[in-house]
Amino acid sequence: MGGADTHARPEEKVFPVSDKIKGPQGVIKVPYRILMGPGPSNAHPRILAAQTLPLLGHLHPPFLALMDEIKAGLQYAFQTESKYTLLISGTGHAGMELCLANMLEPGQKVIIGNNGIWGERCADMAKRYEANVIELKCPPGQSFTFEEVKKAVEEHKPALLFLCQGESSTGVQQSLAGMGELCHQNGALLLVDTVCSLGAVPFFGDAWGVDICYSGSQKALSASPGTTPFFMSQKAHDRLTSRKTGVHSYNYDLNLLGKYWGWYEGRFYHHTGIVSLWYGMREALAIVYETGLETMWKRHRELYDQLWEGLRDLGLEPFAENPADQLPSVNTIKVPEGIDWLGLNNYVMGKYNLEIAGGLGPSAGKVWRIGIMGFNATAANIALVIAAFKDGLQSQGFHGAKKTAS
Amino acid sequence: MGGADTHARPEEKVFPVSDKIKGPQGVIKVPYRILMGPGPSNAHPRILAAQTLPLLGHLHPPFLALMDEIKAGLQYAFQTESKYTLLISGTGHAGMELCLANMLEPGQKVIIGNNGIWGERCADMAKRYEANVIELKCPPGQSFTFEEVKKAVEEHKPALLFLCQGESSTGVQQSLAGMGELCHQNGALLLVDTVCSLGAVPFFGDAWGVDICYSGSQKALSASPGTTPFFMSQKAHDRLTSRKTGVHSYNYDLNLLGKYWGWYEGRFYHHTGIVSLWYGMREALAIVYETGLETMWKRHRELYDQLWEGLRDLGLEPFAENPADQLPSVNTIKVPEGIDWLGLNNYVMGKYNLEIAGGLGPSAGKVWRIGIMGFNATAANIALVIAAFKDGLQSQGFHGAKKTAS
């Protein structure tokens, strides 16, 4: 080798490097925030620590062993024994699109429970995949009754039913009671979004007859954003393998992704696993397993009670009026008449480094949102949130209708 | 609130949590490896350290400021002043699909330079997006001449031309000389894959007339896998906004993604930014800017010379025979007759914790691959690789044809 001329690419012009654009300099600075909005919530320190571990190759044996650990942890978290379990390299939005991309073929019917932003986005995505989209709607702040869903499924006989267990834009929990059986009696598969609910409230993937499901890394599982827990049932796998048309997206194609995750013999290089975040998710799932799901559910429910006791005491009311609709992990609080919601958010951020979030989609401008999620689900954080609301409201001259004074 | 009954979801059956599936337990253990394959390469410790920083909300002002820093760092790395620059939440495979998803409409012609696995995968993806795919082929280990490409572009007048600057499966660098001008004279846009090349060899996005381009985080930029540098030209943006059909994928839709990254007024919640990895990429880009591109290119080229001086001395030869085709960041080395390549890989992994990779796609079983990338591009690592090859070959009884003995 030797001389520089051997590296030359014929005629490729090399210019002086332009310094017109200045890149970042110095070491990154990130302020500390207590993230009590709908997510990301603060990651568990053990998870963040795992993200500094040295990288491994995406097909190295120790990395494949780690993938098996992740798969087992996801099966526990989802309460499923399905081998068709994996971690998606992408956020919840990618999880939603992946499920639709694999389960729907052009022209097939899908019923989408749309009572907030996730139903809206799901309908948008399903239309892009040329499905025949039937939107089932109910007022924001409410969930669908079994009867409403039953009527729609029996009438339309869809290939797929989408329900969001935790609609974070309105703080609504959707009961899944009877939905799996209903779908299977009518030739449909049941797709459930558990992004904001998994680990915070009961979920039984197999026993409830859920066919395909994605969740979130940065909610009650307390990991960083960027990966998405996933499983599907044997029924859903059968649907996948009997498709008449190919899956439109390469990256979301479960036929290939499953070959990376060891669903079949051998391992296929589908993409490069997101090494650092998979380390983090392995830790997140170990924490879930070590803690136990029942303990997690109980803790979230108790803190939800504590939060609302404090908030009601301040004269605040839930946006989701029916207690049976309320999602413990994302709580929506009506902004009282005359209060500047954004002013309050900015006030508590400035004084306490505390994130209280505003609304989203149908709840924008109408509510605050408080997350109770995983590592952040502590009595200390709930006490802080209540104190911050009290201070923030008083700073705007609001003293509420104290129950004790009535 | 209060009583537990208010939380009940009608008829939703709660079971005892099954312990049939055991999740992971205890703290994660990851062995240390010196990753001298085609990537992931070892991440810079400063980047791994940034991945432990506390999370921020994906639309918080300090996070938006960080996104602006990342954008500026990417503009420097790509040598572009285009505002249409962002970091994709996904790996290089997602970057490839995103570019095709936005630039191609069903039936449009695309010429794909296919001389290795990336051309192959690009052709697969373009077919999924219903493009009219014309594959331009040349033998593995070679790059396309300008004349070959010119003939194809003038004959087919495609909407898009795909070239891979660094074909990592064969260790081949594609000269981009004249390609931008050629495309623009023929109504085509130029799409370039720089996953394995950016930061290691010269690249001038604007001056070379590149229209749309993605790169890799975990090669010469030394960050973790999971994010993908991206930019496109004004011409490419015009193509996007004049599409007759919608973009098929929600997650890859640049119309929406650009609204998150501040290409236009306001910020849109398209997905949740991959906070920890974006911190890491901010550090990676700061390191690139602080080091300077010219210094990086020079270092990679010098180490490439050192590597090959040592390898030739051992009697080893490059797979890419023409020096003008050789990619300094991924080096392909012919496996000599009678040598067990996998045995050598396992031997050096066992003894030195050192990754030497095998081939991929058209080079599988025929070559070893050695990466010279970013943080790993040091004289110490090159010396180790040469010593490990010498030891590994000798352990199989191979003593080569020493130049000094001829």
In short:
Two copies of one chain form a homodimer. By secondary structure, chain A is of the alpha/beta class.
Describe this entry's structure for a reader:
Chains A, B: One of its GO terms (cellular component) is peroxisome. Chains A, B: InterPro entries: Aminotrans_V_dom, PyrdxlP-dep_Trfase, PyrdxlP-dep_Trfase_major, PyrdxlP-dep_Trfase_small, SP_NH2Trfase/AEP_transaminase. Chains A, B: Keywords: Aminotransferase, Pyridoxal phosphate, Transferase. Two copies of one chain form a homodimer. Chain A is an alpha/beta fold and 406 residues long. Chain A folds into two domains: 45-291, Aspartate Aminotransferase, domain 2 (3-Layer(aba) Sandwich); 293-397, Alpha-Beta Complex (Aspartate Aminotransferase, domain 1), CATH 3.90.1150. Helices cover 36% and strands 14% of the residues of chain A. Chain A is built from twelve helices and 14 strands. In chain A, strands 2-10-9-8-5-3-4 form a seven-stranded mixed sheet, with helices on both faces. The first copy, chain A, has a three-stranded antiparallel sheet with strand order 11-14-13, with helices on one face. Chain A is globular. The termini of chain A are far apart. The relative contact order of chain A is 0.16.
